[in-house]
Amino acid sequence: MGHEDVTHSHGMHVVRCGPRQAPPLLLIHGSGFSGGSWSPVVPALSERHHVIRIDLPGHGHSPPAPSYDVAEQAGRLAAAVDELALGRVTAVGHSSGGYIATALAGQRPDLVGSLALISSGPSPEALLPQPAVLRALTAPPLGPLLWPIRSDSMLRKGMASVCNRPVVIPDDLITEARGIGYRTFRTVLRRNTAYIAERSVPERLAALDVPVLVIFGAADRRWDPASAHRYGTVPNARVEQLPGVGHLPMFEAPEKTVALLLAFAAAPR
Q1: Domain spanning 4-126+163-266: which CATH class is it, in words?
Q2: Which of 58, 95, 191, 254 is the 20 to 30 A CA-CA neighbour of 185?
Q3: Mind listing the pLDDT tens digit for each residue in 240-266?
Q4: Which residues fall within 8 angstroms of residue 256, CB to CB, at 6 or more apart?
């Protein structure tokens, strides 16, 4: 993966790699994950970009925060981008990370030159019934009991349950997944749901003057894949559905995901 620089900014763990003079790619993970969720695509992306991965508060190596409102998380992210002197970035969000990326573009259009959303459900009604292992781990009554004693194999099974293709979840990502507490995780889920219930993601994007790439697995097991078509109403948006791919395109189709991101980031504006 090449040389990595690890730092902290505004209470968040930051990992940077790739040439500092290259165009910056800001990678924002989803709920319950960490910056490690981007590991399959970082080597190829960092050949052409300055890649910045941030562990959101309460996730991975970052300590908890007083609030997990999407708008406040975006504000914290904006402060980090300013402090790191990144200039205008291509912001890439996976799942609920796409909500934070969208909010960042809304708050600070000067910081976001383009926006890519991967597996980001557009609104609450697009949520599918969740796999049994995820329900057991994350919802009452079993969730609070299982969470403190969850095994590595249970975490792997939970992550893989939203995939449609066989995946290998690295040990580092499992370790980082232990960094989030049950109460924090449930709060994050509630705040994310509130954000997309108040106003759908396509509606929010339509109000922004920014190029958008939407990548959605055609076999996503967390969000209804058919809901991806709702992003087609967004001006300046391109929607790419990946056949046979579930909720984690970075692991299920890393080469295709990289190709789409590199082509999108390199397109003339």
Answers
A1: alpha beta
A2: 254
A3: 999 999 999 999 999 999 999 999 999
A4: 242, 245, 249
**Looking at this protein, which amino acid is placed at residue 190?**
R
Domain boundaries, the chain: 4-126+163-266
The string of pLDDT tens digits covering residues 221-240 is: 999 999 999 999 999 999 99
> Is residue 24 within 8 Å of 50, Cβ to Cβ?
yes
Residue entry with tokens 């009452």: 140
Question: What's the token pair of residue 208?
Answer: 């922004």
3-state SS string over 129-150?
Answer: CCCHHHHHHHCCCCHHHHHHHC
How far is it, in rounded angstroms, from Cα 256 to Cα 249? 8
Output the furthest CA–CA distance in the chain (Å, rounded).
51
Q: What residues are paired with 54 via a beta bridge?
A: 14, 28
Beta strand spans in the chain (E): 4-9, 12-17, 24-28, 50-55, 89-94, 112-118, 212-217, 237-242
- Which residue type is seen at 17? C
How far from 263 is each of 169, 238, 268, CA to CA, in Å? 26, 12, 10
